[in-house]
Every structure is written in structure tokens, then in C-alpha cells.
Design brief:
Blueprint lengths: L4 H13 L5 H18 L48 H69 L20 H11 L1
Length: 189
């Protein structure tokens, strides 16, 4: 038989609070007691119960725990190892002098480098200006060449005049004389 969820939850909660580990056995026990109570009634039917009044004196002992502040002091020993260098003042002074000289040399080198960098940038700027001028000149020359090419093409496109004419406009045969040119023309025909 399946129990309703709310009853099952109540039983589980009761068992947990009262440290009952075997829940199934507990449920069977409760069903028996309930069935017995239903079968035979809630009160015994043999004799009525006798009620006795008894005075009971109770002595209740309470254990009072009082908190007393306790101060705990811990001592921790810490070992610190420290390296101590023993130096010679002469060596330190020599090293300091070398360091100072090196700083001066480095500063001079940086200054020289900056001066050279500035000089190189000026040279590069001048070269850039020269290149720009040369590019302008080159463009002008290209335009001149293109103009000359156009003129040449225009000359080629013109109809060709006969350059074979002599001073009389009669062609090369004119050197034979004017009478002969008539004969020459008749021969060609």
C-alpha cells in the first residue's frame, strides 16, 4: 500500500528527530498499534483505571556553564637569517668611481647619438625635397615627350606630299627637260 506524501513526510520527520533508523519497521509497528486500538477500542474494558495521586518531589539540577574570558598568549619565535656583507671601502670607492665614469660616458654617447639622429633626419628631409623636385622635373619631361609623340603622330597622319617633284613641279623626270617629260608621260601610259 502506498502512503500519502504528507503522512510519509511526517513519519520521516518524526523518525529523524527521534533517531529512529529503521523507518519501515517503525511504520509496521504503528499500523499494528493503530489496528489493535481500532479492533479492541481505545481504552481497556476489563477494569477502570485507578487514579492515584502521588506527590513527587523533584530535584532539578541544572548545569550552568559560565563563560570566562581566557586570554591566550602565543609566543612565536621567528628566526630570521640575514646576510651581512663585509666590504672593503677602497673597493667600494673604486667601483663608485667606475660607475660615475660609465654614467658620464653613457650620457655623452646618448648625446652624440641624439646629435647624429638629428643630423640624419635633416639629411633625409633634404633628400626627400630633392626627390620631390626630381619627380616634378620628371613629370615635366614626360609631358614634353608625350607632346612630341603627339606631334609626330600628327605629322604621320598628314597626307604625304610628293617629294619627287623637281623645281618645276614635274617630278624626277624633269631633269631631262620639259619636252622629254611629255614623252616620258606618254611611255608610262
Amino acid at each position: 500500500m502506498e502512503l500519502p506524501k504528507n503522512i510519509k513526510d511526517e513519519i520521516w520527520e518524526y523518525c529523524r528527530v527521534n533517531d529512529i533508523s529503521n523507518i519501515d519497521e517503525f511504520i509496521v509497528k504503528m499500523v499494528r498499534q493503530g489496528f489493535t486500538s481500532e479492533k479492541f477500542g481505545a481504552t481497556p474494558w476489563d477494569k477502570p483505571a485507578e487514579i492515584k495521586e502521588v506527590e513527587v518531589e523533584k530535584i532539578v539540577e541544572k548545569e550552568v556553564i559560565k563563560e570566562v574570558p581566557v586570554e591566550v598568549v602565543r609566543e612565536v619565535e621567528k628566526i630570521v637569517e640575514k646576510e651581512v656583507f663585509v666590504t672593503d671601502d677602497e673597493v667600494v670607492n673604486k667601483l663608485q668611481e667606475e660607475l660615475d665614469k660609465t654614467k658620464v660616458i653613457l650620457k655623452d654617447t646618448i648625446n652624440d647619438f641624439d646629435e647624429e639622429r638629428i643630423a640624419h633626419s635633416k639629411i633625409l628631409k633634404e633628400k626627400d625635397e630633392e626627390i620631390t623636385k626630381l619627380l616634378v622635373i620628371n613629370k615635366e619631361q614626360e609631358e614634353k615627350v608625350n607632346n612630341l609623340i603627339e606631334e609626330l603622330e600628327a605629322e604621320k597622319a598628314k597626307p604625304k606630299q610628293e617629294e619627287d617633284n623637281d623645281i618645276y613641279g614635274e617630278g624626277k623626270q624633269g631633269f631631262f627637260g620639259s619636252n622629254i617629260s611629255d614623252l616620258w608621260n606618254k611611255k608610262k601610259k
